Amino acid sequence: MTSATHSSLFPQVPESADAVLDGLDPEQREVAMALHGPVCVLAGAGTGKTRAITHRIAYGVRAGILQPASVLAVTFTNRAAGEMRGRLRQLGAGGVQARTFHSAALRQLQYFWPKAVGGDLPRLLERKVQLVAEAAARCRIRLDRNELRDVTSEIEWAKVTQTVPADYPAVVAKTQRDAPRDTAEISQIYAMYEQLKRDRSVIDFEDVLLLTVAILQDRHDIADHVRRQYQHFVVDEYQDVSPLQQRLLDLWLGDRDTLCVVGDASQTIYSFTGATPDHLLNFRTRHPNATVVKLVRDYRSTPQVVHLANGLLGQARGRAAEHRLELVSQREPGPEPVHAEYADEPAEAEGTARRIRDLIVAGVPAGEIAVLYRVNSQSEVYEQALADAGVPYQLRGAERFFERAEVREAGVALRGAARAGGNDSLLDDAEGLPAQVRAVLSTKGWTTQPPAGSGAVRDRWESLAALVRLAEDFEQARPGATLSDLVAELDERAAAQHAPTVQGVTLASLHSAKGLEWDAVFLVGLNEGMMPITYAKTDEQIEEERRLLYVGVTRARFHLSLSWSLSRSPGGRAGRRPSRFLNGLRPGSVALGTRGTARGGGIERGPGPVAKRGRRGPARCRVCGKTLTDAGEMKLMRCDDCPSDMDEALYERLRDWRAVRAKEIGQPAYCVFTDKTLMAIAEAVPDSAGELAGISGVGARKLDRFGTAVLAICAGEMVEEGLGNAVDEV
């Protein structure tokens, strides 16, 4: 092992307190040396906030000012707490407690419960969903699985905002919160849930905080005990603190001000869980003598990415926007962010997959690339495009599309309807494949209009709506396709997605990407209605959507792409608009209410096949000359009812070869060539690479990968299994 490798894996502990400060920039050093009185660190994305606060603790410990056991550092995830503990050990401050709010509270509750209440601490309820379901049943309120998840989340929100069941309806009305059901019903379920917990002597995670608060409020001796042990507090991600967590923090502190908080109001994206930046924004009001340090040197992203991020926040409104930080990149210049416009969603996904493949070929590791979207249901088209391009991927914070419960249920229902055929009364009035799918999925929760608000019900609807759109696109590509054909297509797609999880490109929602970073980030689906999302109505909800996009932008170190599509499906009306948040940032646009325009990168028009056809002029039938608009007809370059000159024997040989090739590469047959493409090849019988490349559905990549074998089959030769090399027919 080389010394360089050794030092990177096992960094040497600084020799002294002063050595802890080595390598910090002036602002980080100021944070590290501010060991007395209240301290507020306003830290922008990528500015090294964790480095600053861990060095602050370590410097205090190494200088003898702080006793390790007297410091409690709290954050919001076990991962962040673990990272903080690891860094502190490397700096020689291993005795410091770094925990989540819940972990710290549970530890105290377990210790003090026998003294404060007596007996053993009630059993901790790992999953509250089952008990909420029972509470709803006792109230004679029927909830499906998704409604159950949403009501459970509402109960969690009510508890962290310290809202009791009786007050829930009034609080929801006052805060303009979108409730997933009638607020009186939720209030009733909430009250019954609390009663069931008391009857069975169990507590939930929110109770851990509530009970700790109650004990510290009621028992001054216990509060004094905690305050003697913990004399210095550090709170990371302070913009995400809920009212209940703030109450607990106040009780830990007592009348002291030995507190350091770190946060960024521009990264507040979890208000639906009860998080609020008000505590961060009001810190100087509560602590007039506080030391405030702003970290704006961005060590993560290039100047080009930082410029776009600053421009995005420059148009923000509201209180959080008044406290925004103007980041200054510390990195060497990189490529300009790419703004890409595509004809439709599949073209956007295919174009994104192509650019990702190019980055990987250029040396960017697949694990350093991410595709980020607003809602999880958007993942399916990108899962498919990456699979088609042979790019490995992994999903973060969500099940694969075809593994989601609602998608599996929909598949079962569609399969049953396909088997029943004309005997299924659901399909009596349904004309055409999309109508049949809509009729079947309407029994599973799909409606013509999306449900109001966010949550599990909305997620379920989005997944079902994606299946409806898939059926519409499938019929366009294969006119006359039956429900059985669609079920077979879904099975093929599902099989392609069930491969073992591999290290690859990350597919994630913007919310689940918080706290992460990659060399290359693709922000996709940036259309009005998705960013901001349609159910964001109030000014504050709109601004939180802007902050969510800001979080996405600041995940990128070097490469950044922002894309949108003009229509949902190929051939659809191009009536979509790019997100209003891109006004003034994308070339040729002007920010409303601002002076001039912000500098942006070169715009890239998506190279999807629909866009190319548009530049060549309308496609015409090669038999009758009629203009073609159907995707399947355009692939064959003839009307469906015009006579076909397809070589049937050649078509069957191509199908047999495709089946073998698909098995070899471990992908479904359509990933090699679709049926329509094979039909087009069998009709054209190309005898050169140029002629084969001119057939829709072939493309440069598939020509390079499969062209030799296909041309050999067209020439009447056999193709050997394995590498697909042509051999003379015997």
Description:
The structure is a single chain. The protein is an alpha/beta fold and 730 residues long. Helices cover 47% and strands 11% of the residues. The protein contains 30 helices and 19 strands. The strands form five sheets. The chain has a seven-stranded parallel beta sheet with strand order 13-14-12-15-16-11-17, sandwiched between helices. A six-stranded parallel beta sheet has the order 3-2-6-7-1-8. Strands 4-5 form a two-stranded parallel ribbon. Strand 6 (232-235), helix 13 and strand 7 (259-263) form a beta-alpha-beta unit. Helix 3 crosses helix 4 (49-62), helix 6 crosses helix 11 (205-218) and helix 16 runs antiparallel to helix 24 (539-553). The longest helix has 22 residues, at 456-477.
How would you concisely characterize the structure shown here?
This protein has 730 residues and is an alpha/beta fold. Helix content is 47%, strand content 11%.
